[in-house]
Specification:
Chain A: Belongs to the ABC transporter superfamily. The complex is a heterodimer of chains A (about 425) and B (about 280). Chain A is of the alpha/beta class. Chain A contains eight helices and 18 strands. Chain A has two domains: about 210 residues, P-loop containing nucleotide triphosphate hydrolases (Rossmann fold, 3-Layer(aba) Sandwich); about 110 residues, Distorted Sandwich (Coagulation Factor XIII, Chain A, domain 1), CATH 2.70.50. In chain A, strand 14 and strand 15 form a beta hairpin. Chain B is an all-alpha fold and about 280 residues long. In chain B, helix 4 packs antiparallel against helix 9, helix 8 packs parallel to helix 12 and helix 11 packs across helix 12. Classes of the chains: A alpha/beta (about 425), B mainly alpha (about 280).
Chain lengths: ~425, ~280
């Protein structure tokens, strides 16, 4: 027996765009005419890749095209992709909400999906009644729900409201209650779409912890979709990046997150500035470059990190009216440093400004710089992930060793004393 | 490494066989059916003062209206049966059928939201509708029995007979017809909404093509066959015959209705099953 619990083969899903009207009837008839003569569906041959931003010629698009992947038991697979990349379609197919156009999904065990929190909650029923209703919708028997009822209520933290109709609940309380029901389902495979966005920080932490429990301790498989890369990389070991309906990368979650960032177009690998920026544009950033004291091309740990910024008309303004912020994020979008003229005074006498970080305290890996220029207190030019650079391994500590990447992105000088 | 097909407990494919109905799965979700029935029953009359009394009031007022309009004003014969009883017997039966039909026919559109988010055997939904309507029917039926008991003891000549043993079967037939037709229509409305308009007045008109407000015995011969072609006709007539002792009872007519109901039910389930797989894309 292999321990593969989900096997997706050549999975595709075609959708028709536009409104359903008289045109659809003629297509339906044509399709039916082909079918009774034993021919292939004529509309399966056409269809374009699903890129929502370009205008296509065909009414048919492939929301997913030839997807192949496997998930092993106990894995938490993060599914990443831009809006419209096909994440939701994939989840819908996996949770049997709609059928694929071609291909197949094979699974071992019960699949429970949480595509939306509180599906089937009835406004007029109390929390107690809704736990039973929602549990049953998700596939639990009454006996199973009764056995876990107290646990569910305790996890949701809505004891006080349990006999109040759900319509009186706040949206956060609904999420709590619904997630609590779903988390106690005990399916072999749990599918979770971005549902945790509504809960407060405490509950999100609880929910993520619960999902980790489900996979690690109970050996169950979780498929998790989110736009929050920090959560994805914390929770998942493996990832899957979807792009225009096809798989871009499958593999270790860090590779996936990096690939996702580099494909979002928000980051430019060549160091050219992207055009998508905001601000009133009084002063604009023209170029940005990152290098080190020892090389024009490589930044390594321990060498001085130099971030060079060239502006178009900075000298027109007074030093006091200018504020420049640099934000450095790691590969999953977590901020590791904030450099600003607010912290260190500058004198402006040219359009070129260098920020210098002595003996680079960043661990090896990929980083992104977001730049923001304020003139007279207003945002003049704000570019998210304007530049991407990587830091190579080097010497920071006298031991010549470095902290493991998953432990820390920053390097702190310290000494140990024994008194 | 070669995987055997039977290793997989679930295989999702574009389309499956016409008769791949997965009834075992429906059975596994029977608790959900019970929940839906409970929800329908409890939720409908929340925040009303009269609550379940509304179940009684609706057929009662309809009966009184029919008695006045059709019995007193139009003077349509009731075969010698007290008009109140005559109309109520027809209405209680017809209501069950028509409610099953109209609610079931809305299954996909009404539940698009929940169907789009979570999977469970879709058949549970129409089944739960039939069962919750059965409860409603039960309540109205009790009202009818009370009225009947009053007339029997008052000595009006009405007398229930052996045919009452057929009543559970009649209810089953009405459920099957309502469910079957309803599922067919619901499957048709997912893509093209035209049927939705037909159903609203179609059911109303169909009542006049069934012996709800008139007995079959008073019909001219040339219309009789058309009315009897309606599978609900013999069911309502038999229902009336069982309790009131008046009406047309014929095994052949009833056999026709049974066959009709069976065919419609199977057809309905098969079509419904076919549509449920991809209806989310078109609804």
């Amino acid at each position: 027996m292999s321990d593969v619990v989900i096997k997706v083969e050549n999975l595709s899903k075609q959708y028709r765009l536009g409104e359903l009207g008289t045109g659809t009837l003629s297509h339906d008839l044509n399709r039916w005419w082909h079918r009774i003569r034993g021919k292939e569906d004529p509309y399966l041959k056409i269809g374009e890749t699903n890129d929502r931003s370009t205008k296509g010629n065909s009414d048919y698009v492939w929301a997913l095209r030839d997807i192949n992947f496997e998930v092993k038991q106990g894995e938490v697979l993060g599914i990443i992709g831009k809006n419209g990349a096909g994440k939701s379609t994939l989840l819908k197919l996996l949770s049997r909400v709609t059928a694929p156009t071609t291909g197949s999904i094979k699974a071992k065990g019960r699949i429970a999906s949480l595509l939306e929190v509180g599906t089937g909650f009835h406004e007029e029923l109390t929390g107690r009644e809704n736990i039973f209703l929602n549990g049953a919708i998700l596939g639990m028997t009454k006996a199973e729900i009764r056995a876990k009822f107290d646990e569910i209520v305790a996890f949701s933290g809505t004891e006080r409201y349990i006999d109040t109709p759900v319509k009186r609940y706040s949206s956060g309380m609904r999420v709590r209650l619904a997630f609590a029901v779903a988390a106690h389902l005990d399916p072999e495979i749990l599918i979770v779409d971005e549902v945790l966005a509504v809960g407060d920080a405490e509950f999100q932490k609880k929910a993520i912890g619960k999902m980790q429990d489900i996979s690690k301790e109970q050996g169950r498989t979780v498929l998790f979709v989110s736009h929050n890369m920090a959560t994805i990389s914390k929770l998942c070991k493996y990832g899957l990046v979807l792009k225009n309906g096809t798989i871009d990368v499958v593999g270790h979650v860090n590779d996936c997150v990096e690939k996702y960032y580099s494909s979002t177009g928000e980051v430019n690998l060549k160091g050219e500035l992207i055009v998508n920026r905001s601000g009133n544009g009084r002063v604009k950033l023209r170029a940005i470059k990152v290098y080190s004291s020892i090389s024009e091309h490589i930044v390594s740990i321990g060498s001085d990190l130099i971030i060079e910024l060239i502006f178009d008309s900075l000298i027109k303004y007074n030093t006091n009216d200018i504020r420049i912020d640099l934000r450095i994020d790691n590969h999953i979008g977590v901020r590791v440093a904030w450099l600003s003229t607010e912290l260190m005074p500058i004198t402006i006498n040219s359009n070129r400004i260098n920020f210098i970080v002595p003996s680079c305290p960043l661990n090896f890996g990929l980083y992104y710089i977001t730049t923001c220029i304020y003139i007279l207190g207003d945002v003049s030019d704000w570019i998210q992930n304007a530049y991407q650079f990587s830091v190579a391994e080097g010497n920071f500590y006298s031991s010549l060793k470095l902290p493991p990447k998953e432990q820390s992105d920053s390097l702190v000088n310290f000494r140990i004393e024994n008194k | 490494m070669k995987e055997k097909e039977e290793d997989w407990t679930l295989v999702i494919k574009p389309s499956s066989g016409l008769f791949d109905l997965q009834l075992r799965e429906v059975w596994r979700y029977r608790d959900l059916l019970q929940m839906f029935v409970r929800r329908d029953f409890v939720a409908v009359y929340k925040q009303t003062i009269l609550g379940p009394i509304w179940f009684f009031l609706q057929p009662l007022f309809t009966t009184i209206t029919f008695t006045i309009v059709f019995g007193n004003i139009a003077g349509i014969s009731t075969d010698g049966v007290p008009p109140l009883l005559f109309y109520m017997a027809g209405i209680v039966g017809w209501n069950y059928f028509s409610e099953c039909l109209t609610t079931t026919s809305n299954t996909f559109i009404q539940n698009a939201n929940i169907f789009g988010k979570v999977y469970f055997p879709r058949l549970i939904m129409p089944l739960s509708i039939v069962v919750s309507n059965l409860l409603k029917f039960g309540v109205q039926f009790v009202l009818f029995l009370v009225l009947l008991a009053y007339y029997v003891f008052a000595g009006s000549g009405v007398q229930p007979n052996w045919a009452v043993v057929l009543v559970p079967f009649l209810v089953l037939l009405m459920a099957a017809l309502g469910l079957g037709f309803g599922m067919l229509i619901s499957a048709m409305t997912t893509k093209y909404r035209d049927m939705k308009f037909l159903i609203t007045f179609g059911v109303q008109l169909a009542m006049y093509a069934s012996p709800v407000i008139y007995p079959i015995s008073t019909l001219p011969e040339k219309y009789k066959l058309y009315i009897l072609a309606n599978p609900m006709s013999s069911i309502i007539e038999t229902f009336r015959y069982a309790f009131l002792g008046e009406g047309t009872f014929n095994w052949m007519y009833l056999g026709y209705s049974t066959l009709f109901a069976a065919v419609i039910l199977v057809l309905g389930i098969v079509v419904f099953n076919k549509v449920e797989k991809s209806f989310m894309d078109t609804v």
